[in-house]
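Researcher: Can you fold this with NAP in place?
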Amino acid sequence: MPDSTEGRPLAGKVALVTGASRGIGRAIALRLAADGAAVAVNYATSPDRADDVVAAIAAAGGRAVAVRADVGDPEAVDRLFDVVERDLGRVDVLVNNAGIHRGGRIDALAIADFDAVVRTSLGATFLCARRAVPLMRAAGWGRIVSISSPAAVRAFPGDVAYGAAKAAQLGLTRCLAAEVAGDGITVNAVLPGFVETDMTASLSDRSRAHIARSIPVGRSADPAEIAAGVAFLAAPASAYITGTVLPVDGGIVL
Ligand code: NAP
């Protein structure tokens, strides 16, 4: 009998990817589906783009559903998990990818922008992990991967909100990893470098050139390269890796 799970390390698993309608999250959803997982494609405002991701996964022979939820909203996250459990039965892999960027130096950054950034990166990671852990614990297996940023570990003037949220997300990752290490659940982060997405599209040519000069590998990342890092940590073979950060950044944080 041929092994139907060969080359598909996540066969039989269910993955929830937040913010999977576009950019890095889209690439993660496609990659985890290619690795055999059924995927919940979460989005906030882009139903058509989420449907495109679901259609691409279905066209490749996989299974996916699109689920709308603002992952910074506790009630919406409860509904999100209820729908994923109803439609896909479980959550084995949670990827906390949704994020927004609002820049501004300390005296120019609106309180509402600070709150929105913290709520969407850090708050959502807490809310989703809080719902995922009991499901994973009951299954005796789980993977939580959060998408970090160079701003979590390096200084970028104008990134006080984004850098604070991303740094705190790493603190959550380490503490949660220690909490659930005995339950078969690993908790890690992937730290992407510079990726051409809608989030980075508004950067000026000057900023873009400055960033390009700071990447030792000499180019931006393909979203699929970030997804490969997530897939590595999500795989059963990575059971002994927890509480850590995997840079997929072309050396930008060196
Ligand atoms: P993006 O292209 O702007 O896409 C953001 C995604 O997040 C979209 O799918 C969006 O959904 C979703 N989203 C935003 N707010 C949400 C909310 N409240 N609830 C649910 N979904 C929400 O961003 P990206 O560049 O792919 O970034 C993805 C992650 O990587 C972020 O955490 C970002 O901080 C991180 N990152 C990016 C880079 C980079 O260079 N691009 C570098 C390091 C880290 P809708 O389409 O429905 O709005």
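Model: Folded with NAP in place. The pocket of NAP is lined by residues 18-25, 42-46, 49, 70-72, 97-100, 120-121, 147, 149, 192, 194-195, 197-200 (CB under 6 Å).
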